[in-house]
Amino acid sequence: MNSKRAFWISIISLILFKPILSELSFSSKEVSEIPLKFLQFAKKAEVFDWMVSVRRKIHENPELGYEEFETSKLIREELEKMAIEYKYPLAGTGLIGFIGSGKPPFVAIRADMDALSLQELVEWEHKSKNPGKMHACGHDAHVAMLLGAAKILQEHRDSLKGTVVLVFQPAEEGGGGAKKMIEAGALQNVEAIFGLHSSTLLPLGEVASRSGPILAGSGFFEAVISGKGGHAAIPQQSIDPILAASSVIVSLQHLVSREADPLDSQVVTVAKFQGGSAFNVIPDSVTIGGTFRAFSRESLQQLKQRIKEVIIGQAAVQRCNATVTFDSKDRIFFPPTVNDDSLHKLFHRVAGDMLGSTGIKDMPPLMGSEDFSFYQEIIPGYFFFLGMEDKTLEQPTYAHSPYFRINEAALPFGAAFHASLVVRYLEESQTKTTTYNGYYHDEL
């Protein structure tokens, strides 16, 4: 009796589950064709022109961190036109959208929305209309590309084997918007996340990344070194904080040259020095400040500890007192950006299918930092650079420059990459599923 029962259960299982599993999977040929199909879709005149229009509207109206109210409103309006559900607000101006089944697995793609405190010096039709504010790091393009990916995914939503979360975050430029998005629940149920950054130095049609550390973690410090002011002609009656600050700066450089492992890249830079306003007056105090960077949390913590010890100790040698502060509400500690190895392999498969092997560049680690790293501390994440070089320009333009410009021809590539990565992730997640209990929890 038990054997007959087992036999019929196995027959029913084959009848019920075989069609389900076949529906959940593309053939390997179909999967490899997705990136190029998505790229062709994104290059359609109506889609490309729409992304360009969105990008230019945002570029004309740049907003600083946690002030992206109009940018967020524009994003919500575009999501509503596409009938995409979203949650708002998160972290003030941030929002997340949802495309797909509403069930696991959940995978996210992210764009940052904030601009920089710069006066744009590029004269063109869509120049910034907000004095002293400019999209000089390509975040306007990041938003346009993520919306482009949303359009692609929404067109193919019935084929998604899970749920894609669209993360539009505020305040990447030092404000730690990613951290606040996490605290607001943006990564709830999410298993992995992808992000990109525009690169005006990388040729159009190329991408660059690596497995492991790709960007450094960073922290900021400020120190007030106090002495005793007086006349420059009689220094013996003063305690000179400028001399003390000078000794501090020289000693801080020894932290990298003499205390750090030469194979463990680190940076300590003093970029702020304020003290005195007259040629013949020794001031009462001097304020210095700077940044420190490394590719591991351990190295960053070691630098932080030693920076404080050196500043206080060297100030004391010169008979001064010093107080040291790290980070602030505007400048917070960023962990290193570390790419997950399995996601790196997935990225290579997608990039190879879209661009061929010649379009993928191995990228050396950079000492710049990115708050995408906060996501990677919670779940596996992957960050890469998208080529946006404009060869019509006489000289390349650099990020955080008032002359910054991007090549809008790259927008379809970014949209297609976002969409292809999450579709491939969801597709490969299905092949890892070996059991099916016939029940899904409604996550949304």
Biggest sheet features: 8 strands, mixed
Order of strands, main sheet, comes to 1-2-4-3-5-16-6-15
* Uncertain parts: 1-25, 434-444
Described by the principal axes of the CA atoms, the overall outline is: elongated
Q: What distance lies between the first and last C-alpha atoms, to the nearest angstrom?
A: 43 Å
The percentage of residues in β strands lies in 15-25%
Helix content: 25-40%
Query: What is the overall pLDDT average?
Result: 91
Number of helix segments?
Answer: 11
Query: Secondary-structure element order, as H and E?
Result: HHHHEEEHEHEEEEEHEEEHEEHEHEH
Helix/strand class = alpha/beta
Query: Can you count the beta strands?
Result: 16
Rg, Å, rounded = 26 Å
Question: Keywords, please?
Answer:
444 residues, alpha/beta, four-stranded antiparallel sheet, 16 strands, disordered N terminus, disordered C terminus
Give a verbal description of the structure.
- By secondary structure, the chain is an alpha/beta fold.
- Helix content is 39%, strand content 22%.
- It contains eleven helices and 16 strands.
- The protein has helices at residues 2-23, 28-43, 45-60, 69-81, 139-155, 177-183, 241-259, 297-317, 341-355, 373-378, 411-432; strands at residues 85-90, 94-100, 106-112, 163-169, 190-199, 207-209, 212-215, 217-226, 230-231, 266-274, 281-282, 285-294, 321-326, 337-339, 360-362, 381-387.
- The protein has an eight-stranded mixed β-sheet, sandwiched between helices. Strands 10-12-8-13 form a four-stranded antiparallel β-sheet, with helices on one face.
- Strand 1 (85-90) and strand 2 (94-100) form a beta hairpin.
- Mean pLDDT is 91; it is low at 1-25 and 434-444.
